[in-house]
Amino acid sequence: GQQLNQSPQSMFIQEGEDVSMNCTSSSIFNTWLWYKQDPGEGPVLLIALYKAGELTSNGRLTAQFGITRKDSFLNISASIPSDVGIYFCAGHGTQGGSEKLVFGKGTKLTVNP
Amino acid sequence: KAGVTQTPRYLIKTRGQQVTLSCSPISGHRSVSWYQQTPGQGLQFLFEYFSETQRNKGNFPGRFSGRQFSNSRSEMNVSTLELGDSALYLCASRGQVSTDTQYFGPGTRLTVL
To answer: Which of A99, A97, A64 lies closest to B50 in space, CA to CA?
Structure first.
């Protein structure tokens, strides 16, 4: 089945540093999504990407939909303590005629003030 | 517009019991999906309902079932609970179009003792 490889698994950074994480897949996706999850809460959508090559920003966050449609990255610039959480990528596509939304395992971000 | 709501937020049950979780989607959204999230397995897709019909199903045993009502509210039921069913159960809704982005609720934390 479709799998997403998300890396790194965890990151420990200093406040003010930039962060980069990515997801890759052996399958093509039609949509890439990036979510952030705080402890005990549901994932919150950060950025949605709908077209190969698309580069989208949301404040200090920037994400790109790879031109091969098999990868995506998320950058966070000038990190702040509230950026702490788990970031998930998700790819939306079809498998065996059914729509699937497949999630990466997440990147746990720790920001030291 | 109100977000996805889930009730209850926390639940403690014992093995062998059954449980019903509830999800109210964003107003106007007709699709509701359910996910199980555990530290080891990450986000696992359970099923999706659209206009009261199950349109997609993950690889979970028949103890996991769901339904959707005419107002798009959805319930998920787990029968004969096992210790391994302890997890955060997340509900997500999206609009009518298959490529619409999913928005998650806060989840129901189920603990099976």
So the answer is: A99
